[in-house]
Every structure is written in structure tokens, then in C-alpha cells.
């Protein structure tokens, strides 16, 4: 199936799914008219489960450059002051974190400028764990997207599409970052796949590894195309095996320091 | 109306509201059975508006102790490396941020340990803006809670109850923190009010000022009771005038550094 065919098929899916959403909204309006409690205002009460997609961030958390991404200095002590707090030194691109467009551009959107409507997204999880066990630098491909759509329907506009490679389980081990020879080894997205996701109006991509591009990437093709397009990425996601392939909503707690290129984020899914 | 009366009235409200939620869930189940799209899996698509309750965090953002809470050092430059990033130095309790129980205890819950189900909450906003314009150290009282309940029904278990004092608009001005004589001046919660919220099973409180306690507090009574109870607080909220008193859901993107006493958070409401 050619890419254009897929795109057309996807558009068709999207139209039909939009009609379904319209029906749901209409149903909600009818419910209000009838005096029935609708799910929308009771969102928190109506949700099933909150799933944490965030690793605990520690000075030992693996980083791309191998330098600790966090230090914590206790600047106020409880026994002296009756309360306590820390001063943190944080490298923006460490822990479960955001890559804003400004990370790979000179004038792109900074992390505080990301549109808030792109921080609450339908979550689509593409599972490549089985393949990643054999091919450590494997990439999410256009075929993986096609397979996902066949199984789950359309990828909604404004979605966050996450790669689940199983890598989150390795985070305490050197193999999260390197092979035995010290080469970067982890899965990522292919540029062809993220180009396809761009056409579908996807808002964000996420990976459970150190980089949007695979470990053996020589050109950071995804970083240099996805981020300059104005979209953002999430790296070092956790917990993706605890959410469904489709149907969850992800809340991306991107940091909001002015002019930042990214930074540690709390990422939660609601199923 | 005595506190016990209010508590009983609230319990009664809660029971009836719970029954309404049950009806809503049953309605959802019936919709699934009928092949109709329910709002739950289409959460992100079905929501109305995402409202940012987070101030942009800058080195100039006012802090309790007057010391800048953020510095940013560019450690990788685009013209040298083809990408760019910053190293941040962050005082945990600056910007829009979380107070975890560990901030005012020696062994309480740290910010990374906050239960995730308490980070997605029904949002209740208590508006004391009119009074705060006259009384700069005014407090959310039990009467304010009673008035809110009369107007909006119960405060749901697990809610986040936020004080809207209008202070967020002053954030660029010295009056956000001090009066002309240099005294701390800003509204907060009274201990009596937060004790009542504890009885109602509220998960979190939030303020649009520098502290959960008012500026002229001599004893930090709310900090020393609310936080040791295992609950958390949010300080320096923004945007509360853009959400309804009841009906929104708040996503609290608490940071997840291990053993932290709090830290800057992205807080978003979905209406």
C-alpha cells in the first residue's frame, strides 16, 4: 500500500471518526437538555485510571551525553528552619522530558509557548517491543503506522503518537543507552514515519528511549524535521505497557520556563 | 451553621452526587452496548477548552524569600552544535509550584511519591477577589466554603480546591508580595477552612498567591496542618478567572524528582 493510499485511507477514517465525535457531542447536548449528568463536566470523577508515563528523575538517570542531568542541594534544613527545600540543577534534556521546536531551531517555539491544546491529546501507542528485542536500533516505520491504523482505526488530529519499545524497563541498566562496545543502541522513529504523522496532523511524538531518532542515527533526521515543523517530542517515557494502544488521553505537563528549549515534564495518561 | 452541620450537609450532597455519577457511568455502559461512542475513550476529542493555570517561569518571577528562583545558562549553542539547550538552576518552591508534605515534615510524602490519582482532580474555585481588594491578607473561611457549596453543590472527594483572589494579575508588580511598607501582603487559606476541606476528603488546595497561608501569617498554620496530613498544595496559580467555579478538571503536572519537597509544575484545567 503506497503512502498516498494510506494518507487517503486515513483521511477517510478521520472524517468518519469526526462524525462519530460529533454524534457523541450531540448526545451530550441531548443529555443536558434531558437533565442527565453528562460525562464532560464530571471528567475527573468519570475517568477510570490515571497512569504515570514519567520516570522518577534522579542524578543517576541515564542521559544522552552521559553527564548527570540533575543535582539536588538542600538549601533549607528542617532541623534548622522547621521546613526544608532543595535547589535543583537540571539539564533541560534529561529525565522524561520535552523537546520543543527551539531545541533544533534558532527561532522556533520555546517550551513555554507550546499551545496548551496540544498538551492534552488522544494517545496512540505503537508497540514495536518484540522487534526491538532483536534489532536494538529499529525504527517505527510507515508500515507500523499502517498496521496500527488497521487494528485501531484513525490516528486523531492532534494526537500524541508514542513508540513503545520496552526500553523503559532497561532504565537502570547500561543497555538503556549502549551496547557492550559503547555504541548508542536504542529504537526511535524513522523520518518517513514522522513525515506521515505530520500529514495526519499529529501534535506530538513520544519515545521510551533517550532520543526521537534511533541510537545509530548519524543525521538526527527526525529531530531536524519534526521539531522545525513546530511540533514537539517527548523522550524517556515510562509506563507505556500500562495504557491501551488507543483510547487513552495523555496530559503532557510541559515545563513553562520562558524561552526554554524543553525540560523535564510530568506525563500522565487517563484511560 | 455549625461545622458538623455543614459536614453532614456535604455528606448528603456527596451521596446524591455519587448516585448521579453512577447514573452517568450506567449511561455510558448503555451507550457502549448500543454501539454509540461514549465520551470516556474520546476524552481529549470531547473536551471543550484547555486552560493554562501556570505562570511563565522567569528569573524575575516573585519569590517568597526575594531571591530569584530560576537561572538559565545556555550550555549548548545552535551556531556551534546545530542544536541548543540550557542548564537550569531552580529553587523548588518558586514559580507555579507544588508544596509536597515533605516540605513541612521530616518524613512525609515527597513530590515524586504523590499518588497519581490525586493529580487529576475535579477543580473547585472559591472566588474571594472582591474582598481581597479591600483586605489584602484576607483568608478563605469556612463561610466561603459554605457559600460555594450552596451555589455549586458538594465539593467532590479528591477535589482540588483553589482560592481565586485576583492576585495573579499583580504578578509583575511589587504588590504581589508586599505593601508599601515592605510587609508580606496577600490572601491565603484559614486553618479552619482547610480543616473542613480535610474532612471532606479534598486532595489538594491551591492559591494564586505566594503562600497557602496569608501574607501576615505568623504561624504558617495551614502549611503545618495541611501538608503533614499527607495532602499537597499548589502556589502561584494563574488563570483562575478563566475556569468555572465548578465542573472543570485539573491536571497537576507535579515534577517527579526523587525525594523532592515540591517544585515547579505545569497545571492545566480542562473545561
Automatic annotation (TrEMBL), chains A, B:
Superkingdom of this protein's organism: Bacteria
One Pfam family in the UniProt entry: Cyclase
GO terms (BP aspect): L-tryptophan catabolic process to kynurenine
Residues making up the signal peptide according to the UniProt record: 1-44
Keywords: Signal
GO terms for MF: arylformamidase activity
InterPro entries hit by this protein: KFase/CYL (IPR007325), KFase_sf (IPR037175), TAT_signal (IPR006311)
Keyword rRNA processing: no
Listed name of the protein: Kynurenine formamidase
Amino acid at each position: 500500500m503506497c503512502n498516498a493510499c494510506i494518507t487517503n485511507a486515513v483521511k477517510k477514517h478521520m472524517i468518519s471518526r469526526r462524525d462519530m465525535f460529533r454524534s457523541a457531542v450531540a448526545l451530550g447536548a441531548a443529555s443536558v437538555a434531558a437533565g442527565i449528568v453528562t460525562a464532560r463536566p464530571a471528567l475527573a470523577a468519570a475517568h477510570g485510571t490515571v497512569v504515570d508515563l514519567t520516570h522518577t528523575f534522579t542524578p543517576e538517570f541515564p542521559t544522552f551525553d552521559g553527564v548527570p542531568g540533575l543535582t539536588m542541594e538542600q538549601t533549607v534544613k528542617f532541623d534548622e528552619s522547621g521546613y526544608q527545600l532543595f535547589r535543583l540543577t537540571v539539564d533541560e534534556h534529561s529525565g522524561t522530558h520535552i523537546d520543543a521546536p527551539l531545541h533544533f531551531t534558532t527561532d522556533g517555539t520555546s517550551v513555554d509557548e507550546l499551545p496548551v491544546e496540544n498538551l492534552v491529546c488522544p494517545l496512540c501507542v505503537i508497540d514495536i517491543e518484540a522487534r526491538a528485542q532483536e534489532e536494538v536500533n529499529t525504527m517505527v516505520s510507515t508500515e507500523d503506522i499502517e498496521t496500527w491504523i488497521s487494528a485501531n482505526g484513525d490516528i486523531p488530529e492532534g494526537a500524541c503518537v508514542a513508540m513503545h519499545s520496552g526500553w523503559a524497563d532497561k532504565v537502570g541498566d547500561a543497555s538503556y543507552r549502549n551496547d557492550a562496545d559503547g555504541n548508542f543502541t536504542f529504537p526511535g522513529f524513522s523520518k518517513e514515519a514522522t513525515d506521515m504523522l505530520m500529514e495526519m496532523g499529529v501534535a506530538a511524538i513520544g519515545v521510551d528511549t533517550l532520543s526521537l531518532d534511533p541510537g545509530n542515527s548519524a543525521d538526527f533526521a527526525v529531530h531536524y524535521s519534526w521539531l522545525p515543523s513546530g511540533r514537539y517530542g517527548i523522550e524517556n517515557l515510562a509506563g507505556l505497557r500500562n495504557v491501551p494502544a488507543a483510547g487513552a488521553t495523555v496530559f503532557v505537563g510541559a515545563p513553562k520556563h520562558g524561552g526554554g528549549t524543553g525540560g523535564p515534564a510530568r506525563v500522565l495518561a487517563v484511560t
